[in-house]
Amino acid sequence: MVATLLALCGCSSLNETTSNKIESSLEDKYGIKFEVSSIGGRSRRGGSGTVQTYVYPQNDETLHFNAITTKEGELKDDYIGRIISENINEEIKGEMDGVELQTSTNMFYLSANDKEETNLDITLAEYVEKYSPRYITTSVIVKENSTITSTSFQLIMEKIHSEIPEIVYYMNVFLISDKDYESFLEKPSSLSFFDKSNLKDYKILNEYRLYIDKDGFKDYTSNKNK
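Now predict its structure.
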């Protein structure tokens, strides 16, 4: 028992040291204060010694992002990408007046690397031009609403895409019941990105799969319900 307690104390001390280093490094990089919300797995396969952590800026506890440290002390994070994603999320919420929804946006890359970017005010258009994500996807969880159809999201998708016409923009919309929606809101705020896999415990009442590219808005939902 004593050995177990000592091991736990040692682990706690190591986690605190790791958290302090990460918070300090991020503050040096971005000029604002951060807080580690949790430390994930530690990988030592092949001697990599990487540590996965989840962090948020102290001025916004809802904006969680990933930070990874290597055994060499190198820090990689996706804070700028999460800022851009959250800007898209807020734009969607602002346009969908009267609709209760949660949004989560993600960007897919092949080889782009934004890890050295420090401009917290970089725009979506500037970000896409500089880092060239292959596509952007937004997942939308909507509280049951009889007026929602696939075309309800067309105008906001067209507005966002007008800023980044060279990128394909996908949106997946999931309608769930009032009860399930309230339950979903209780999920940890550290959920930095969600999609259909996060809805396995809920009944999806309807689902829309949408996208827009240089040729315009398209609905490729199976069993469309418009």
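Confidence is low (pLDDT under 50) at residues 1-11, 43-47.
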